[in-house]
Amino acid sequence: MRKLIFTLILILAGYVGYMYFFGKGDDKAKAQIIVHETRDLGKAVGDFLSKQKEKYDDGEFDRLIDKVSNSLEKLKSDSGEKGEEVKDNLRDLQKELKQIDPEKLNDENRKALEKLIKDVDEQLSADNQ
Fold it and tell me: What is the C-alpha separation between 127 and 90, in angstroms, rounded?
C-alpha cells in the first residue's frame, strides 16, 4: 500500500513537473500555481516545526513535567478516600505518559518521565490495595 501511494505521488509530481516546463497555456499556468502553493505549504510546515522546537527548547516540556509532578504529589498527600474518578484520571495520565517517546527527550527529561511513570504506577497500585 505504501509503495502504491509513493508511486502515485511520484507520477503526480512527474506530471506537474512536465506541465511546469513543457506545458502549454492553461496547463502550464495551473502547474505553476501548484508549484508555488506547494512551496508555500512547505514553508508553513517548516515554520510550524520550528516553532514547536522553540517551545520544546524553551522548556515547555519541563513545565509540563513539573505540573504533573505537583499534581501527583497533591494526590499522594491527600489522606481522604480517593474516588473512582481520581483513579480513572490516574489511568488516563499513565496511558498518556507511556505514549511519550523517551528517545526524543534529553537525559534529564527522560529520567523525569520515567520517575513520573513510576510514581503513577505506585499510586495506582496503592489505590488498588
Answer: 10
| pTM for this entry | 0.45
Task: Give the orientation angle of helix 107-128 with respect to helix 60-77, to 10 degrees.
Answer: 20
Residue ranges per domain, the chain?
2-57, 60-128
C-alpha cell at 19: 506541465
What letter would DSSP give residue 80? S
Give, in degrees to the nearest 5, the angle at Cα 121 between 118 and 123: 110
What would the pLDDT profile of 18-46 be if each residue is shown by its tens digit? Answer: 999 998 999 999 999 999 999 998 899 88
User: Residue 54 has which C-alpha cell?
Assistant: 522553540
Amino acid at 47: D
Q: How many CA atoms lie within 13 A of 58 on its CB side?
A: 7
- Is 93 in contact with 120 (CB distance < 8 Å)? yes
Grid coordinates in use for 65? 513535567
